[in-house]
């Protein structure tokens, strides 16, 4: 990604930044900040740094990289991203017109960070809402990056998701109710195979322009944390952070903090201090958790604060292991991979452990 950054920084007339996810963009900016002097020096001297993972392509791309001393001087006057409170990208690329990145569902948590980097006026457009089997929806409106418009030749049905996360009735698109949650079920044109997506989407209504259905991605289905006396769903976790702005507007993941009395553990990069609020919200949203709390068998969620950039390093590490690259790696809302948990805990900078009294 830093090689892409070097070429992008060298080009002052860049108009579009195309990233897969909003988190990819945040990582992109953060790594530019960390390697700022290396990248600017490369633009000044035409010496493209040979970065890990570029061994096979370096000899080919290095010949396309040229020195632009005037551009390097311009970048030094602007400074790295951490020196600008808002709108750094439009200072570096004055002709920037569009950021392409998915900002819906769990990727919406870093939307405030993304908006701070690009400023209030640059539109953010997701390319498509899709799975391996077929495309489902496309971007609806640049002002609503978390809403997608169903516009496809494949056959799409929606399975109702009940408040207890059970399967309801299978609905046609014209039978959907605004505000209800559904799981997309797709039938591909080419093979007439029927696939359950495993996603939860909220029906946002019909487009007033052409009547096409509008979907708002929410979360993955059937992922949960099993405590001794309660099963905590993704919905419970998302609801538990309501009113805790330090977490709800940034990336985080959760795991079973397996101690004498196991509880929900949060791994975050900021430093929130509202364990009581999260505990109260879990009690309100999960009946079994509330019952065990009354018996003194549920404790407040633990909050572990990670070093800045830990989640970006996690994606880089996971991408190297799988051979897919960091931009293909998603940070799950619930971390069940023990090796992933161990990697993140290495980025621990401080620890908050709070128990019910």
TrEMBL record:
Q: Which residues form the signal peptide?
A: 1-18
The UniProt record lists the GH3 middle domain at 153-207
**A cellular component term (GO) from this record?**
cytoplasm
Matches recorded under InterPro entries: GH3 (IPR004993), GH3_M (IPR055377)
Q: Which UniProt keywords apply?
A: Signal
Q: Name one GO molecular function term.
A: acid-amino acid ligase activity
Q: Which domain of life is it from?
A: Eukaryota
What protein name is recorded for this chain? GH3 middle domain-containing protein
Organism of derivation: Coniophora puteana (strain RWD-64-598) (Brown rot fungus)
